[in-house]
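[step 3/7] fold_predict: job queued, chain A
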Amino acid sequence: MRDLSKSFSANRGPNRNYFLRIGILVLAVGAVIFLAKNLLGGGIYTAGAGAVTLKDAPLGLVPVALGDTTFAAGGTNLATQSITLTDVKYGGDAKGTARRSYGAGVYKLDVSATLPDPKNVAYVVWLVGESGTRLVDVMSGSKNSWSLSLSDTDKYSGYSGIWITLERDKADSIVEEHVMEGSF
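[step 4/7] structure written:
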């Protein structure tokens, strides 16, 4: 007769060492994933050592109208002024507006105008104040649509007037031919 105890002991299945190895392998893979995600910045939205969690806004929120208010990057309320420029060259055919916002060390200026094609000269925006005139920049555009957008540190809020001029020599910083004017 056969000894059945020996054949049963050989087929008992995997021993404890096998399960111990699998457990260590699972823990090692988990540790690698944890370290990769937290220490190497594996998340999409991270800020410093902590992660930022994005969530949907609650349902039923009502928008709040801010009107004609502009805010700087940190949420500071900027003083905003808009004017209509006066045509001083083309007999009322030229139209233009200017808008400026400033505060918290920020200055923004937007000028747009409908002016005739300048043909080999440039339209230039100047700011005018008690300390004199200051060249802002050359307007961009074509045909009869011209504009200028400036976003800079606040070194312009002391100037209350604005001019658009025709300039033949843009490098000389001398005001040449007035086209439009206005004051904030």
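[step 5/7] annotate
The longest helix spans residues 16-39.
The mean pLDDT is 80.
exit 0
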